[in-house]
Amino acid sequence: MTAGIRFREVPYLPQKLEMETRDDGCVLLRNGQPKRPHPPHMLAPLVYWAAADPGRTWLAQRDPDDPSKPGWIRLTYGEALTQIRSLAQGFLKAGAGPDRPVMILSRNAIEHALVMYAAMWAGSPVVPVTPAYATLSEDFARLNHADRLTEPGILYVEDGAEYQRGLDGMEVGDRLVLYRKTAPTGVRSESLEAFAKAPTSAVDLAYDRLSEERVAKYMLTSGSTGEPKAVINTHGNIASMVKMIRSVWDVGRLEEISQGPQVMVSFLPWSHTYGAHSILHSMTDWGGTLHIDWGAPTPARLPEMLRNLREVAPTQHTTVPAAWAAIATELEHDRALAETFFSRIMVMAYGGASLGQDIYERIQNVAVDVTGERISLSAGYGATETSPTISNVHWPSDTMGLIGLPLPGCEFKLAPVGEKMECRVRGAGITPGYLKDPQKTAEAFDEEGFYKLGDAVKFRDPDDPDKGLAFDGRIAEEFKLANGTWVSAGTVRVKAVEAVDGALSDVVVCGLNENEIALLGFLNEAWCRRKTERNVGMDELTGDETVRAAVKAGLSAYNRAHPNAAKRVARILLQAEPPRPDAGEITEKGYINQGRVQSLRAQEVKRLYSTPYDDDIIDIS
User: Fold this and answer.
1) Is 600 within 8 Å of 585 (Cβ atoms)?
2) What is the pTM of this model?
3) Average per-residue pLDDT for the chain
4) Predicted local distance difference test score (pLDDT) of residue 152
5) What domains does the chain contain, in order, with CATH numbers?
């Protein structure tokens, strides 16, 4: 345990929570620190840094055609501005504007960023689409829905050959398809190199037309139906949000400590608000350097993620709990990795789901061993509709599961909904609504203009609100057992995964109108392979007795700690197929979609409640 050992200095400003309790039972929360002024649009930080320090690296990536090559391809702020202006001229010549969105089908990459910012410069909203919609989908239903909904006039694909199936599955017609590598067939296409044109005064005029009210992006997000909605993000929404994050930092002291620009390494996809805005655009606003990571916390891509972290010492590292779980294990076994990782880092953070306290302690044990200090590891919170970050833990904390407190510039309303308190928010970062869906837009806001996040929250310590808010489950995920007992699926999900200590990456909580809670379980493939010392597929791992015993032991311990019917788990069925993002089983926020999974896997849910139980069911007695 690392309690009592000091935290490495984090230059946060003092917390100034303002709280008001109303007669209607609502609680209003605001941050008393002033929000830093934000620029009128997302291109302003790029223009500023290109002038202030044109040789500073903005983005770095491996060779896209041979990632195994050593070293990094780097793009400076000055080079980026030059290329963005040339591409913006190409977009203007091709008829870009507010009514001609640009759809992007690409992994994170330098060209992806250049196309994104150039299209916005030219006045076109950007529609970044999860690559899985075009590369993994069998029917392309979600890709076609996004296409019909946003009506992009131009499309960009990184590699025409890689995205050929997706393009074939769409009605591209005579629309222009841009590409970096390999021209797609059967469509009108042009390489980025040929598309870029020498900038004229039209580029400067387009820049002058940008404003807070202009739509910057349509970000796709899924609900319980799994059908994407297009969230409208204006330039002001995103520009304001990144300044909210910076407003809890003592920026002058930060620059003294960092002794140079902020540095991050991230794989979080730019088709999701977390990676696109809280990482990419936030680092752009900082004038920081972002190393694009083509790894991920999966068996196939983990080596690349670790390779990058061995080479680049970040000043901040923000990622999802699954990645932190993988990093914790590697830090424990790789001293060189740990020394590099902890050498410059000031703050670590997570989002998208709750991080287990055990993972936190393991990371801190290594940090203390290497540096003699703990490193702040905290959470951020938000949604696609909030651009996304609206709160975080902006103080050193050793408690996981918190969402923190509001950032400067937004106001929380905790509104009673049944026995829970729903988190609602308003401020400059909040979306004006959903594209072409006035009904869902109206339903998303309450009578005072607060966006309803659908999450229940509670104070960690009701007697000391300054200790922050904790996630208390999804309002929509509350359900009743047959005997009328209410179940908080979010709470059961988090606690059950924590109890199994590594074997499970996630669970879906079932039991609506049934007598007991049961789970569909998704394995942490990397952990299971290490535990079993077997390099086999998920089909075999779900039946492996070592894995099944670990799951049963963890859930048995969970049941001993939670014996009441509202939390006790009766059985679990391990899934060989992971949740499919292209089918809506993973939301754009990174959460597992409880309702969608149960709908698509109705037969698996039926097995959990069909007696006698088959041999695949793990009974937790």
Assistant:
1) yes
2) 0.85
3) 93
4) 98
5) 17-40+235-474 (3.40.50.12780), 77-210 (3.40.50.980), 481-619 (3.30.300.30)
Read off the DSSP letter of residue 586: B
pLDDT value at position 196?
A: 98
- Identify the DSSP state of 404: E
Does residue 291 contact residue 265 with C-beta atoms inside 8 Å?
A: yes
Structure tokens at 204: 């400067």
Name the least confident of 230-244, 382-396, 486-500, 586-600.
586-600
Reported as a single tens digit per residue, the pLDDT across 444-464 is 999 999 999 988 899 999 999
SS3 state of residue 18: strand
Nearest alpha-carbon partner for 98 in 120, 81, 83, 80:
120
356: confidence class by pLDDT, cuts 50, 70, 90 = confident
Which one, of 493, 450, 443, lies nearest residue 473 by Cα? 493
DSSP string, 173-222: TT-EEEEEESPPSSSEEEEHHHH-----HHHHHHHHH--TTSEEEEEEEE
Helix (H, G, I), strand (E, B) or coil at 82: helix
Sign of CA dihedral 134, 140, 144, 145: negative
For residue 89 the two structure tokens come to 């001229």
3-state helix/strand/coil string of 269-288: CCCCHHHHHHHHHHHHHHCC
d(CA 34, CA 596): 41
Cβ contacts of 117 within 8 Å, gap of 6 or more: 42, 43, 46, 80, 84
Q: What b/e string do you get for 148-160 counting C-beta neighbours within 10 Å, with b at 16 or more?
A: ebbebbbbbbbbb
What is the identity of the amino acid at 73? I
Are residues 224 and 599 in contact, defined by beta-carbon separation less than 8 angstroms? Answer: no
List pLDDT tens digits, range 536-585.
889 999 999 999 999 999 999 999 999 998 899 999 999 999 998 778 78
For residue 338, give both structure tokens.
């740990």
Three-state secondary structure along 461-518? CCCCHHHCEEEEEEHHHEEECCCCCEEEHHHHHHHHHHHHCCCEEEEEEECCCCCCEE
Evaluate if residue 375 carries a pLDDT over 80: yes
CA distances from 617 to 572, 592, 604 (A): 6, 21, 10
- The answer to whether 142 and 580 are in contact (CB under 8 A) is no
